[in-house]
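Marked as duplicate of an earlier ticket. Keeping the data here for the record.
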Amino acid sequence: MHIELTEFLRCPEGHGPRDYCVLMPETIVERNVRAGLIACPTCQATYPIVDGVVDFRGAEDHGGGASVPDATALPAADDVRALLGVVGPGGYVVVLGSACRLVAALSKLLPGVHFVLVNPPTDVASSSPASSVLSRGQIPLAPSMARGVLIGRDHVQRPWLGESARVLLRGLRVVVLGEPEDIHGVKHLASGQGMWVGERS
C-alpha cells in the first residue's frame, strides 16, 4: 500500500466521511507499506496490512473479499483508458475485482496515476503504482477522491455500483465491464461491446 493513500482510507464500519484512519507501519519499502496496521480512532478497530495488502474484511470474514476468477476476455487497455477519460499524471483510479488484471497495462498508459485495487484476484500482486485493499461490501475510501473508477464483471452488483459513484469525483467517469442497471448519481454516456460508461453528475 502506498503510504500517501492513508489519508483517503476510511473505516468500513460506516463512520462519518471525515473520520480518518491511522497508519501504524511495521515495514516500509520505497514509500510502500508492506506490513503494519490501519487503525480507526473512532471504533478502535484495526485492520492488518500483509504483503502490502490492507484487509478490511474483519477477523471473522476472510472468504468474501477477493475477486473470483473471471474467464471472460478483457477489453484492450487502450480502449479502457480512452473511456475513463483520465489525462495527465496525479490522483487515483479505483479498480474493482477482475478488472484489476488490466492495471499492469493501464499503468504504462497513465504514468503518474496511482491505482487502488479493490478485491483484486489473488494472482494480481499489489505493487507500485498500485495499492490493494480487501473489503466485504464497501470501498473503504473517502468520498469524491477518485479520478476514475473501473468495475470488473464480478463486481457489477450492489453495493459496489453505488460505492463506485460515491468515491468518484463529480464530472468524472466510471467504466463498467458489463451491463449494469442505472447507477444512482451517474449519467449514462454510452454502452457497447460489453462496456458501460457513465459520468458522475
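See parent ticket for discussion. The mean pLDDT is 91.
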